[in-house]
TrEMBL record:
Protein name: 5-formyltetrahydrofolate cyclo-ligase
InterPro entries associated with the record: FTHF_cligase, FTHF_cligase-like_sf, NagB/RpiA_transferase-like
Pfam family, one: 5-FTHF_cyc-lig
Repeat as UniProt keyword: no
Record keywords: ATP-binding, Ligase, Magnesium, Metal-binding, Nucleotide-binding
Cofactor requirement: Mg(2+)
Catalytic activity from the UniProt record: (6S)-5-formyl-5,6,7,8-tetrahydrofolate + ATP = (6R)-5,10-methenyltetrahydrofolate + ADP + phosphate
């Protein structure tokens, strides 16, 4: 929930500071990570076989959900986010291992051919998280708008996927920030009751 004591400018500054602190932790974790980091994510998704889900194509130093997405694609539809424009929610195009890809906005790859799906599970990249289920992204609000819209129509499970090193003690939160239902790292699974 938004801290009413903080002004909008103070919240923006606090989020910027939290990102600046988190990026080096994520980079260090990424640089030292070995293969097989999606094992716990695969285990979590195994309980939802066949449920439409959307992951992401990792950019920069994001932890890769691709191995877990490949396993899930054998059982049901898997999508990747498509950024259509600033200020709009994401749409999700069906992805299969080895499918042709295209470059999207902000360097996010997407399937070359759009075949839209509506996911019931979202695997979200993030810059930082806390144990209250708060996710700090890049600041564009794409996932918050998207989750709000999806959740208005049906329950949608939001799973943040990150390195354990991306954990922050606490993060600033606004009313528009959509909470995570679960956070999966290479070492643990955190679940939140809402």
């Amino acid at each position: 929930m938004r801290d009413d004591k903080m002004t909008a400018d103070a919240l923006t500054e606090a989020k910027t500071a939290a990102r600046q602190a988190a990026f080096p932790r994520r980079k260090e974790a990424h640089d030292t990570a070995g293969p097989g980091r999606a094992g716990l994510l695969s285990s979590v998704l195994a309980g939802y076989r066949g449920v439409p889900l959307a992951g992401y194509w990792p950019i920069r130093t994001e932890i890769s959900p691709i191995p877990a997405m490949e396993e899930a694609a054998a059982h049901g539809p898997v999508g990747l986010p498509v950024i259509e424009d600033h200020g709009l929610p994401l749409r999700f195009s069906r992805w299969e291992p080895g499918c042709a890809m295209r470059d999207g906005l902000f360097g996010a790859a997407a399937p070359a051919v759009d075949d839209w799906i509506t996911p019931e599970i979202l695997i979200l990249p993030l810059v930082a998280f806390d144990r209250a289920g708060t996710r700090l992204g890049y600041g564009g609000g794409f996932y918050d708008r998207t989750l709000e819209g999806l959740r208005a129509n049906r329950p949608t499970l939001a799973i943040g996927f990150a390195y354990a090193a991306q954990e922050a003690e606490s993060l600033p939160r606004e009313d528009t920030d959509q909470p995570l239902d679960m956070i999966v790292t290479e070492t643990e699974v955190l679940s939140f009751t809402r």
